[in-house]
Design brief:
Number of strands: 19
CATH architecture of the largest domain: 3-Layer(bba) Sandwich
Largest sheet: 8 strands, mixed
CATH topology of the largest domain: FAD/NAD(P)-binding domain
CATH superfamily of the largest domain: FAD/NAD(P)-binding domain
Distance between the termini: 53 Å
Bound molecules: flavin-adenine dinucleotide
Number of domains: 3
Oligomer: single chain
Strand content: 25-35%
Length: 429
Amino acid sequence: MEKFDVVVVGAGLAGSAAAYAAAREGLQVVLAERGTQPGTKTVSGGLLYTHALGRMFPEFWRETPCPVERAIDRNVLSLLTPTRAASLDYFDAAYSQPPFNAFSVLRSRLDPWIAGKAEAAGAVPVYGIKIDNLVRESNRVVGIRAGDDEIRADVVILAEGSNAILSRGNPAKPGPDPHVVGVGVKQVLGLPPGEVERRFQLRGMAGTQYTTIGYPAGIEGGGFLYTNRETISVGLIFSMESLVRRGASMFEVLEEYKQHPLISRLLEGGSLLEYSGCFVEEGGWERLPPLVGDGYLVAGSAAGLFLNTGFTLRGMDFALESGRLAGESAVRAVRSKNPTAAGLASYRSALEDSFVLKELRAFRGYPRAFQNPRLYGAYPDIVTSLLHRAFFTDGSGRPHLRKLLSESYRGKASFLRLARDALQLSGTL
Ligand SMILES: Cc1cc2nc3c(=O)[nH]c(=O)nc-3n(C[C@H](O)[C@H](O)[C@H](O)COP(=O)(O)OP(=O)(O)OC[C@H]3O[C@@H](n4cnc5c(N)ncnc54)[C@H](O)[C@@H]3O)c2cc1C
């Protein structure tokens, strides 16, 4: 049995950020990961909003090896029906200049890079070992157990991702809510050198991201397509309930998505390099678990820190920030020899002061708002029907746009419903 200051479970972004923050202050830190290498078990679409990583590693994009893929300067948000797409296409040249807005990333590159930073700061890597249990004494967490091995520590940081089995053992943590449990599925497809630039009309290291809703039919969630250096990431996140209703597997749903006429032409000829899927808990503010207990802290998606606003899908910057703050709070508790819940409480207040809990609170109505089936059926249908008729001209005497508008939503959603849904999405209900 060995004793350390801090044990971190999970070398994803939250775990490695926590281990780095604690180790650089001279604490003895173990970073435990079930994958043989960081990044072998993590699933993510791969759009990283830059700010949180930049706070820890300014100008990280200049490093060799470079942990990121493309600086995203074009964001396309599309409402899909089986044969149509109505898109909002936002290009911003400032997004591909320092300090940047978001990068596409591949976790198989990013995770080993940031875990390497933690190791260089002194964290001891223990990879290829799944942590089975927490060790408790008089209800206080005092370490971790893997098989017959035990590692003791003043503070355990749980950063095990969304399938948070160890954190779930906490009786105060709410069980999974079937209405907000989602699934995520993703592929990485390879293209010949230079093809990503040609196909997406990209210059240098700039990139494009697509976010979609409305297709496949009956699937309540969204799709994404991100350009990497020489690959494309494509996938979906959607509610488990809608998957069960469809009676399909998540892989079948992804294959259907890839056949959409807008998407399939972007993926043409891509060779499959990676395939992954996992659970996602989108409970948000309403279902935050206790983040601090006697001897432990919970960070990243183990704590459900994930925010989908429709425009942006964010978990990685939340993981990095919460991980860093957990590591810093562990340092304070170890130095003051008070790793109790009270001694670790500065973690919760640091999260309250950061974007993590401010944004989760501000968007607290969103997980419920996104359960609205009209977002995935009626609204894409209304908007694309209107645009179809607005652009289509066959000489038969097209009605005025006002009439087209009322014909497009008639029978699909009332004006009152529309206003109510708009209010709910704007967070006022
Ligand atoms: C399909 C999909 C698309 C997404 N797209 C985006 C996106 O575009 N942008 C964005 O910001 N977020 C996105 N997210 C969310 C984002 O991926 C997560 O919020 C983020 O990865 C959370 O990081 P984490 O470090 O908390 O957990 P993870 O990245 O899940 O890391 C957890 C680590 O813990 C390890 N682990 C788990 N249990 C144990 C154990 N018992 N013992 C040892 N090790 C263990 C795992 O192997 C893993 O390495 C997406 C999620 C999904 C599923």
